[in-house]
Amino acid sequence: MATFAHRNRRSGRRSPLTSAALLLIGLLATGGAYAAFTATSSADAASQTQVTKLTEEGEKLFAANCASCHGLQAEGTEDAPTLIGVGAASVDFQVGTGRMPMAASGPQAEQKPVQFTEEQIAALATWVASLGPGPAIPDERYLQGDGDLAVGAELFRINCAMCHNVAGAGGALTQGKFAPGVVGVSAKHVYEAMITGPQNMPVFNDANISPEDKSAIITYLQYLETSTSPGGLELGSLGPVSEGLFIWIFALGGIVAITVWLTAKSN
Question: Which of 189, 67, 102, 179 is CA-nearest to residue 138?
Fold first, then answer.
């Protein structure tokens, strides 16, 4: 036996046991790769099936609830704009905040109770997204409220405070329009508003404000929601108008009342 093994080593041939082991390893590796490929293919197929199902359901929901204004293929009408190319994020924001469907025409769509379930909103968004490329629903990693607070505060003051107020309380615009309050709004809807530009709001795409900076703005808004006012009574956080009105009514009113009382007492 030793002579046979020595002869194999000298001739450069593997022993039968080594060949069998290598064959077994090759078979196991091939089987594992095939199983992984099959599992991936099955997952992709299941995902595609889910997307197809959502798209079909979304088309039915759109035809029943939205087509009267936006057209059967979302091409738009005299009463409403086209939705081709607005993306899933726009649908998720408008429908998820109750702004759509609109109860009545007006200067702008106002927030109201949501009329669809989360599953129905996802179906509508999936179908509209299939009509043309547009902003997608944001990644969860940008919605955690763990961005740079100082950067978010600065970006909000530069880009948003002129309409939404530095405290995020909202403000009046022209012709009956307004910038809504943004404190207490979900992180997903804040992000979607930035990338879709609803109503009179400009679009802040990733070239204007990066996803990380959008996350920082969300962090600042969540800070405003949980922090207390260092100055005491906030007066609605509406700025100098409400504060000035408070002074006129209560402070000067108190001075006038005291003056009248002193005059009456002296008489």
Answer: 189
Domain residue ranges in the chain:
2-46, 143-227
SS (H, E, C) 17-62: HHHHHHHHHHHHHHHHHHHHHHHHHHHHHHHHHHHHHHHHHHHHHH
Q: What pTM value is reported for the model?
A: 0.73
| Inter-CA distances, 165 with 34, 215, 224, 255, Å | 58, 19, 12, 31
Amino acid at 173: L
pLDDT digits (tens, 9 = 90+) for 191-241: 999 999 998 999 999 999 999 999 999 999 999 998 876 666 666 555 566
Could you tell me the CA-to-CA distances from 181 to 97, 104, 167, 190 in Å, in that order? 13, 21, 9, 11
d(CA 34, CA 28): 10
Give the tokens for residue 56: 């079909």
Residue 158, Cα to own-chain centre: how many angstroms? 21
- The yes or no reply on domain 143-227 and CATH 1.10.760.10 is yes
